[in-house]
Amino acid sequence: MSEDRSPAWQAGAVKLSTRSLIASAAALVMAAAVLSGCSGAGPDTAYGKGAAATGLEDPAKKDIAMQLVSSAENSSLDWKSQYKYIEDIDDGRGYTAGIIGFCSGTGDMRRVVERYAKARPGNPLERFRPALRAVEGTDAHTGLGRPFTEAWADAAGDAAFRSAQDAERDASYFGPAVAQAKADGLGALGQFIYYDAYVMHGSGDADGTVGFRSMRRHALAKARAPSRGGAEAAYLDAFLDARVAAMRKEPSHTDTSRVETAQRVFVREGRLGLETPLRWKVYGDSYRIEST
């Protein structure tokens, strides 16, 4: 979400996934989780010198990034099956839905519905726009309920609705994260690492949370970014250190395997361009992508 509000779960706050909530309560029982999101959009940063020529702008690399995020948030590489997902996971943000965990309480779900209305006027979700605006900043379902959740799931069959989700993801999360990574001189792996941090933590800090901007600031205090003459692997390790520290401050994120047995592994293997094959583990589950 782009609007700043004071409660900790709002602007730039950590988005708790179902997987994270279950992991903190019960020793990683088998369950499906939702993609995280509902965080703030980041800076519209120009690409910096030393940036990779393609990186995650390559559709094949972007798809890999989406699979990597989904492995941590959905225990599956099939991120495209999440367009229809919608559920209240009792995290104080109302409904969580779609490919990046858009939330009724934080504004990005409303923006998805508004994008869809522009592309497909009169669609079944359009009538819920006033209710979505009214519940922002709360976890209420007022004016939504089952009619809304059923309409959301049904809309996933429409390419225009899927495109609306893609566009909001790119505008508020993927685009800002990749732009900042390029400005810092990072290749595809670094761009993914920034994106994953944006998805889970948001761009800025809210009460009781640590967001992307603070992580980057802490990393730059320890190592120079490639755009400033530093070694890429050393800087990424410093950023991941900052992220792990942030995750350990959140009870639901004490499992740091999405960093330590996935992203950190790629750094140590020198896969700075997200070169395949990629093999990693999250929450003890093994995954692999053999080729782009």
TrEMBL record:
Entries under Gene3D superfamilies matching the protein: Chitosanase, subunit A, domain 1 (1.20.141.10), Chitosanase, subunit A, domain 2 (3.30.386.10)
Compartmental location: Secreted
Superkingdom of the organism of origin: Bacteria
Enzymatic reactions: Endohydrolysis of beta-(1->4)-linkages between D-glucosamine residues in a partly acetylated chitosan
Signal peptide location: 1-41
Top class in the EC scheme: hydrolase
Role noted for this protein: Aids in the defense against invading fungal pathogens by degrading their cell wall chitosan.
Similarity annotation: Belongs to the glycosyl hydrolase 46 family.
Protein name: Chitosanase
Organism from which the protein derives: Streptomyces laculatispora
Lineage, highest ranks first: Bacteria, Bacillati, Actinomycetota, Actinomycetes, Kitasatosporales
